[in-house]
């Protein structure tokens, strides 16, 4: 008499397939996302530079255009340290360091934003 | 028995493959660009996300070309230049936005006023070196304003008494709402849209509520807290958004239609949460102009609107609706219960 719950080789292949798929889905969606932060510098919808924002990243980026902005990156934060735009709003915005934060220079069509796959404090700021 | 088990396992495998296939079909697309005198960011998730994104980018540029008062061929510019245009000469968008602007202007007793074109041109907060206009210039500009002088007969739109339109207090919200409607029609299930002080969200962020930070008026790249929302819009009007300084005094862009000068009250910003972004946009300006003490009547007309006031004393007053959604995170501000 056959054992009612005996698995055959085909069953094992199907089980292995399911386990592999389940593992893939788990890795893709359920594991906590990387806390890696990136700084993206864009002008007029074109990415000029993208770099990982770590405590060791140190860089000065100059963006030309109608006006000029000097972007300073250090200690995991970013600011527009100098600009010759008329309103100086971008310079007075100071440092940003968290995902969801952004610096904008409207006169020079410049956007500096911080993004991360990890869940941030906020998704966007209404300002 | 083992046949039943095999059948079950096969069905499970097929289900998982279908789930995987469905997930693969759902794509994400993102874009940031300058239009309507602000930075616009759109992030969409859904079927054909890139196609939907391209469509709404075009839509925004089209709306800017229709509603801007600084583009010569726009409907608004042509109305300002010619004074009267037949309905056929105007786009549906212009007619819709004018009807809504008129309605909210009347409801707010003129606190929101789309006919202040002469006054806003006089102050010109976009100029490289803005100046304080002379008193007589302000009086003259104010005499050529008022929603009762906007005439819409069904055949034509006329600007009487020399008024000029400026839809700056509602156009971005209107565009945000139109884009939201289009994205939904295109089958987009999740989206985050930001047009300067206007934010719209569609659906949820991967099953979680969107966390929309409310800017700290003293330091707008940081937040005083956030609201947790889905399928709605938020608009902030704040004195910090555009201003200039003269002789130690700040002059901001939110003008009082009664005095012609920047509003002087105890507020730093007002945020409105409402499903229709055009309404939220106009209401945020109206509530800022009216102030907390005088907004009961307008609040009653929009009982579903969440309203959050931030005062110069770093107090936050939320109505009940906003209070249910808001989480305070800044220790520099105090949340005070507000009885409307």
Structure characterization notes:
The complex is a heterodimer of chains A (127) and B (340). Chain A has 127 residues and is of the alpha+beta class. Helices cover 20% and strands 36% of the residues of chain A. Chain A contains 2 helices and 8 strands; from the N terminus they run H-E-E-E-E-E-H-E-E-E. Chain A has helices spanning 9-30, 89-92, and strands at 37-43, 46-52, 59-63, 69-74, 77-83, 102-105, 110-116, 124-126. Chain A has a 4-stranded antiparallel sheet with strand order 2-1-7-6, with no helix packed on it. The longest helix of chain A is centred in the first third of the chain and has 22 residues, at 9-30. Chain B is α+β, with helices and mostly antiparallel strands. Chain B has a 9-stranded mixed sheet with strand order 1-2-6-7-10-13-14-15-17. In chain B, strands 3-5-4 form a 3-stranded antiparallel sheet, with helices on one face. Chain B has a 3-stranded antiparallel sheet with strand order 8-9-16. In chain B, strand 4 (150-152) and strand 5 form a beta hairpin. In chain B, helix 4 (92-107) packs parallel to helix 8 (277-290). Chain B is globular, with a radius of gyration of 23 Å. Strand 8 of chain A pairs parallel with strand 8 (210-216) of chain B.
């Amino acid at each position: 008499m056959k054992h009612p719950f005996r698995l055959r080789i085909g069953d094992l292949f199907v089980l292995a397939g399911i386990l592999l798929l389940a593992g893939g889905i788990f890795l893709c969606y359920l594991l906590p996302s990387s806390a890696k932060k990136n700084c993206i510098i864009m002008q007029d919808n074109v990415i000029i530079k993208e770099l990982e924002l770590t405590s060791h990243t140190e860089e000065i980026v100059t963006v030309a255009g109608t006006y000029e902005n000097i972007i300073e990156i250090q200690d995991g934060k970013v600011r527009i340290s100098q600009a010759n735009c008329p309103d100086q709003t971008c310079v007075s915005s100071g440092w940003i360091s968290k995902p969801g934060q952004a610096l904008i220079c409207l006169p020079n069509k410049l956007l500096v934003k911080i993004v991360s796959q990890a869940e941030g404090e906020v998704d966007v700021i209404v300002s | 028995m083992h046949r039943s088990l095999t059948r079950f396992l096969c069905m499970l495998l097929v289900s998982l493959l279908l789930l995987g296939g469905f997930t693969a079909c759902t794509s994400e697309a993102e874009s940031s660009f300058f239009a309507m005198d602000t930075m616009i960011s759109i992030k969409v998730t859904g079927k054909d996300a890139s196609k939907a994104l391209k469509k709404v980018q075009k839509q925004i540029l089209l709306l800017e070309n229709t509603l801007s008062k600084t583009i010569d061929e726009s409907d608004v510019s042509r109305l300002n230049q010619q004074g009267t245009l037949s309905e056929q000469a105007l786009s549906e968008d212009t007619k819709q936005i004018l009807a809504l602007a008129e309605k909210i202007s009347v409801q707010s007793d003129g606190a929101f006023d789309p006919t202040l074109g002469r006054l806003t041109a006089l102050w010109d907060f976009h100029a490289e070196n803005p100046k304080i206009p002379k008193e007589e210039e302000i009086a003259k500009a104010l005499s050529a304003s008022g929603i009762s002088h906007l005439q819409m007969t069904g055949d034509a739109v006329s600007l009487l008494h020399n008024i000029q339109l400026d839809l700056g207090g509602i156009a971005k919200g209107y565009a945000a709402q139109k884009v939201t409607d289009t994205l939904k029609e295109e089958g987009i299930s999740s989206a985050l849209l930001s047009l300067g002080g206007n934010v719209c969200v569609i659906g949820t962020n991967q099953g979680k509520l969107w966390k929309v930070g409310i800017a700290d008026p003293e330091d707008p790249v940081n937040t005083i807290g956030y609201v947790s929302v889905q399928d709605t819009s938020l608009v902030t009007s704040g004195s910090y958004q555009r201003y200039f300084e003269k002789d130690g005094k700040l002059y901001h862009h939110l003008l009082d239609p009664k005095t012609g000068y920047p509003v002087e009250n105890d507020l730093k910003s007002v945020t409105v949460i409402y499903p229709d972004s055009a309404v939220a946009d106009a209401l945020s300006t109206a509530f800022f102009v009216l102030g907390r003490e005088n907004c009961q009547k307008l609040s009653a007309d929009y009982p579903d609107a969440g309203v959050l006031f931030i005062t110069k004393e770093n107090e936050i007053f939320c109505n009940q609706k906003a209070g249910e959604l808001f989480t305070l995170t800044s220790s520099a501000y105090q949340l005070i219960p507000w009885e409307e």
